[in-house]
Amino acid sequence: MKDIILLFKYREYRILGSRLADFILTTLGKDVMLWKDLDMIVPVPLHKKRQTQRGFNQAQVLAKALERRTGIRSIPKLLVKVRNVPPQTSLEGKARRKNIRGAFGIKKEKKVKDKTILLVDDVYTTGSTVEECARILKKAGAREVKVLTLAQA
């Protein structure tokens, strides 16, 4: 799985996003509590600079593929990365939390008010990124934020 995620994320094998979404639904599709009452799917954003360098946002590709399979709307630009911080991969736990704090913002708070959101990312390491994104969504009024990642490092 690690090699597949690395190909998907860093080698621009976007086509893998579709297969990875199938994998998610095969393994977690029957988890009623995960999918129950979801109003939208929101991918963890990349900073504009990083997305330009990479050519795409892997979380957004996953979110869109899940939308096509579940019918749950994906809103790719609801969360935005407002600060271009160093990659989390080069940092340890406390440094990751400090690095990511305040790095995200939300474009349209009204869209999340009283909604249940599935936050999608590729890899969960310390949880700092998804925790910060969830904090921003909850602060904007989200009722609940559920997190889905492909793997845990």
Provide an overview of this structure.
The chain is of the alpha/beta class and 153 residues long. It has one domain: Rossmann fold (3-Layer(aba) Sandwich), CATH 3.40.50.2020. The chain has helices spanning 2-10, 16-28, 32-35, 48-54, 58-70, 93-100, 128-139, and strands at 40-43, 79-81, 104-106, 116-124, 144-152. The strands form two sheets. The protein has a three-stranded parallel sheet, with helices on both faces. Strands 2-3 form a two-stranded antiparallel ribbon. Helix 2 packs across helix 5 (58-70). The chain is globular and about 35 Å long. The model has no long low-confidence stretch (mean pLDDT 89).
Sheet/helix structural class: alpha/beta
Number of domains: 1
Q: Multimeric state of these chains?
A: single chain
Low-confidence stretches: none
Short recap of the structure:
The protein is of the alpha/beta class and 153 residues long. The chain is 43% helix and 18% strand. The protein has a single domain (2-152), classed as Rossmann fold, CATH 3.40.50.
